[in-house]
Amino acid sequence: IRAHRISGESPRLDGRFDEDVWLAADAIDDFAQQEPDNMAAPRERTVVQVAYDDRFLYVAARCYVRDASTISAGLGRRGSIPASDKIAIGLDPRHDHLTGYSFTANPSGVQSDAALFNDTREDTEHEAVWEVATAVTPEGWNAEFRIPFSQVRFTFADGERFVTGMRN
């Protein structure tokens, strides 16, 4: 997917995707399960869109469910998502397949994040500062992430520099 560069107003973080940015952004829905059946086709459809501005990465996720009454949406402390439905956004900003970050939310808006390292290890004490808004809908539930670039470390090739969130 190609992230949509926001040229106008940034989206409201409300779990609804009616702003111009989400009408213009590309969408993907060809995912595979991680759990319980690794690499199997998903049981339900998920659609994701990505956008960015000078300061933030935005991710819109629509988690469709055939029967919205089956959505599991428990409450919990930040960093400790209860047994519930959830969606995780994984980033590999160095493109080394060894390090990265994950940002997870459940339908109640409970957040958790981790720094990933050594390919399979994670540091759940990462405590990044980011936001998510969720909304349960008749079709399932939505999660709208706003992740500051300052919370994701990445490197540049020689000659590149970082200016207000953009590579030059």
How would you characterize the overall build of this protein?
With 168 residues, this protein is an all-beta fold. It has one helix at residues 20-24; strands spanning 4-5, 27-28, 46-52, 56-64, 87-91, 100-105, 111-117, 121-123, 131-137, 140-148, 162-163, 166-167. Strands 1, 2, 3, 4, 9 and 10 form a six-stranded mixed sheet that branches. The chain has a four-stranded antiparallel sheet with strand order 5-6-7-8, with no helix packed on it. Residues 162-168 have low confidence and may be disordered.
DSSP helical segment count: 1
Query: Ranges with pLDDT <50 over ≥5 residues?
Result: 162-168
Strand content: 35-45%
- Computed structural class: mainly beta
Mean pLDDT across residues: 86
Report the end-to-end length measured between terminal Cα atoms.
21 Å
In total, the number of strands is: 12
